[in-house]
Specification:
Layout: E1 4-16, E2 19-30, E3 36-40, H1 47-62, H2 70-78, H3 87-108, H4 112-115, E4 123-128, H5 138-150, E5 155-158, H6 171-188, E6 193-197, H7 204-214, E7 221-223, H8 231-240, E8 245-247, H9 254-262, E9 268-269, H10 278-290, E10 295-296, H11 304-316, E11 323-325, E12 338-339, E13 348-350, E14 360-361, H12 363-367, E15 376-377
Helix pairs in contact: 1-3, 2-3, 3-10, 5-6, 7-8, 9-10, 10-11
Length: 385
């Protein structure tokens, strides 16, 4: 059995019209040069701190160890005094964990979805994000939405609330937000799912008022209407708005998700595989959610490695809802920095039988797109929450 020896990193960047992003990949090596695993540990900032944590975890806990023992390795890293409760540490663990699952698949010559217990589905339904101008006019967003459905998507998400609404929203801005949603609904018709994103910007009263205005457009879900840290506030909005409530992109490990499930404060959970604990932890979150028939729709601003890891997980959990998918709205090299990343067709991604995650580093292409000194995002900013 190959033993873990070392870790290396790869970094690259890509853009879409709402964001410029860097990604941090983890390459976990073994004493067999042909056998390695690739993970995603992209924190969206503070990459050097995450790299330092990963290097320390590998040196302290993983070097010389069996890569098949991923559950043991996860727990050992999490019990490190610096690892509990923080985004950077859980991102470091996530990157290592994803690489371990990829490595296991390569060693055993099996796809990760099969190692996770098999596939409830091999076709993963995805929704488009990153497609819209923010802030855009209702007409502009409607025209953009038609382009998206013309690409085959049957679901799309956007934040119609602009950039400057925090806690409260004026009547004029609320009307403009509703006009955007109404225009998109009219443009795509009644059978395409619309997902409304709020980026945790509102207080309870405003979130309820907004949600009630959105009900007639039948969103698939209403994402982060209030801050995810206050479970009671999520539960109050859920009890007073007739739209499924989604949350979780800024929560890490199973523990805060367990509280949300216990209080049934959301209908859809959205952990991010590159930040919340990797494949091992998201599988546990899905099992916790399944007990109350709560679904999973993983958050994804990941590299192709994290996106593919999420889709392998999606295949393996019965309570999967839908997968976030930005890929086609980034610059085209998002599809070429790793060989094997799959493009959606008619709103679905088909998983292969390739070992591990089915991806290979394209070193030459990665080198063409170095990380940016400064990243930007106009998808919806959170201030003061």
């Amino acid at each position: 059995m190959p033993a873990i020896t070392d870790v290396e990193f790869r970094q690259f960047s890509a853009n879409h019209h709402n964001a410029q992003r860097n990604w941090l990949l983890v390459k976990l090596s073994t004493d067999d040069p042909a056998v390695y695993g690739i993970g995603d540990a992209s924190p969206m900032q503070d990459d050097e701190q995450v790299k330092d944590l990963i290097t320390r975890f590998v040196e302290k806990y993983l070097r010389g160890k069996d890569p098949l023992e991923s559950e043991l390795h996860w727990t050992t890293m999490y019990q490190d005094p610096q690892a509990r409760g923080g985004r950077l540490a859980t991102t470091a663990i996530s990157g290592i964990d994803i690489a371990l699952w990829d490595l296991k698949g390569r060693i055993l010559d099996q796809p990760v979805w099969k190692l996770l217990g098999g596939a409830h589905r091999r076709s993963i339904r995805v929704y488009a994000n990153g497609w819209y101008t923010n802030p855009g006019t209702p007409k502009q967003n409607a025209e953009e939405a038609k382009i998206v459905t013309g690409m085959g998507y049957t679901a799309l998400k956007f934040d119609p609330f602009g950039q400057e609404n925090f806690y409260k929203i004026s009547l004029a801005e609320l009307q403009l937000a509703e006009d955007r949603v109404a225009a998109v609904r009219k443009a795509v018709g009644p059978h395409v799912d619309i997902l409304v994103e709020a980026h945790a910007k509102f207080n309870v009263m405003n979130a309820i008022q907004i949600g009630r205005r959105m009900e007639e457009y039948f969103p698939l879900f209403y994402e982060e209407p209030v801050s995810q840290e206050r479970v009671a506030e999520l539960a109050e909005v859920r009890s007073r708005v007739n739209i499924p409530i989604a949350t979780g992109e800024r929560l890490y490990t199973k523990f805060p998700f367990a509280e949300i499930v216990e209080q049934h404060a959301a209908d859809v959970l959205q952990p991010d595989i590159a930040n919340a604990g990797g494949i091992t932890e998201l599988k546990k979150i899905a099992i916790i959610a399944e007990a109350k028939h709560i679904t999973m729709a993983p958050h994804n601003v990941c590299s192709p490695v994290g996106a593919m890891a999420e889709m392998h997980l999606d295949a393996s959990v019965i309570n999967f809802e839908i997968q976030e998918y930005h890929a086609e709205f980034y610059t085209e090299h998002y599809f070429t920095v790793l060989d094997g990343f799959t493009r959606q067709v008619d709103g679905y991604v088909e998983l292969s039988d390739a070992p591990g995650l089915g991806l290979e580093l394209n070193e030459a292409e990665i080198a063409k797109h170095p990380p940016l000194a400064r990243m930007t995002s106009a998808g919806g900013t959170v201030r003061g929450i």
